[in-house]
Amino acid sequence: MILSSHGLIASSISGVDADWLAYYNRVVTAGGSLTTTEQSATLQLVLDLKANSLWTPMKAIYPMVGASAAACAQNLKSSSFTGTFTSGWTFASTGVTPLASYMNTGFNLSTQIGSNPLNMSFYNRTNNSLSQGEIGCYNNPAGTTDNEILINYSGVFYGFNSPSKYVSISNSDSRGFYQLNAQALNLKAFKNSSQFGATVSLTTYTSTNLNVYVGGINNNGTLTTPSTKECAFASIGDGLTDTQAGNFYTAVQAFQTTLSRQV
Amino acid sequence: MLGYQLTEEQKDLIQGQYYAPYQFFNCVQDINGVWFLFLSDEDKPEVEASEYAWVFDLPEAEYIPPPPPPFPPVS
Fold first, then answer.
1. B42 to chain A nearest CA, in Å?
2. Domain boundary assignment for chain A
3. Domains of chain B: which residue ranges?
4. For A216, which residue in chain B has the nearest alpha carbon?
5. A66-125 pLDDT per residue, tens
6. Are A231 and A96 in contact (CB under 8 A)?
7. A86 and B75: CB-CB below 8 Å?
8. What is the pTM of this model?
């Protein structure tokens, strides 16, 4: 069931997933709107995540639909962690593109994840080899904690869990869906459906006491390594099993395909 | 890339200020420590309608970003 794309607050429509309906209402209340295709894509994404036991581990999901700050700021999962954008972002039906800018998720990793396994993701539609960071936070001076995805930093992918625990691998094409995932004291990176680089053993889970930024990295409240890559999805949540990580890609890629913006 | 160039005082006037419900100003420093503001085409109508429309009178200049920090960080 698809709702009108403008101005309809749907509070009691039977047959529609209640979590999706709440998200849709948040978008409209914020002054945003979704096309009928975006409505059906986000609804199916919620259903797919639930069907694959991925809904519960997710804490913040940003589908980046609606082509406005009001719509893209909304967290699909809940009314918490609504994002705020700095100046410089371009909002389009294909996603959001920063220019020396970031979205503050309001999601403090230390508070929300603590010493538990972590999954962060970023769907990148831009192929460039610039040394940039896409999502995460770290404490400065380096050596404290790092939780971040750097898709192509100096030609190398880095997925950090702490300063000395990172996955690195050459990345010839930076487009794709990236996950940084800690689970069972293993740190893994995933690009699309495959593990990306080697597994790194952890002795503990480390979470930075900062909010996660999208479009760059939060370095003690200051944007560092700003990205210029177009983001079509981002998320933060609990660590996933390998099977869940693969299913997560499948669900997100189906979502992007419905929106005709898959890479 | 071109951005609006600000003095320290001008930066202090707008840094962190909201010009729309989900959008706020964030100025960044270039390689020489000069403050810059970037506005997308989507930002401009919102800023134009705000009390901060004066930023459009700021001089535009070429922005050269500071070099990225070394990665991976060293403990």
1. 6
2. 18-258
3. 2-62
4. B68
5. 999 999 999 999 999 999 999 999 999 999 999 999 999 999 999 999 999 999 999 999
6. yes
7. no
8. 0.93
Q: Which residues of A touch B3 (CB under 8 A)?
A: 100
Q: Which residues pair with A148 in a beta bridge?
A: A136, A160
* Residue of chain B nearest A70, judged by CA positions: B22
Select the residue of A68, A90, A150 nearest B71 (Cβ to Cβ): A150
pLDDT digits (tens, 9 = 90+) for A119-169: 999 999 999 988 899 999 988 665 567 888 988 887 778 888 877 788 988
ipTM of the complex: 0.93
* B40:A89 CB<8 A: yes
A18-258 classified as CATH 2.60.120.200: yes
Predicted confidence band of residue A11 (pLDDT cuts 50, 70, 90):
very low
Bridge partner residues of A178 (DSSP): A122, A191
Query: Within an 8 Å CB–CB cutoff, is residue B4 touching chain A?
Result: no
**A60 C-beta neighbours (distance < 10 Å), count:** 23
Rounded Cα distance between A85 and A73, Å, is 7
A146 part of contact set with chain B, CB < 8 Å: yes
Closest CA of chain B from A51, distance in Å: 32
A46 vs chain B: nearest CA distance in angstroms? 24
**pLDDT tier, B35 (very low <50, low <70, confident <90, very high otherwise):** very high
Provide CB contacts within 8 A for A66, sequence distance 6+.
A27, A32, A33, A34, A38, A72, A74, A91
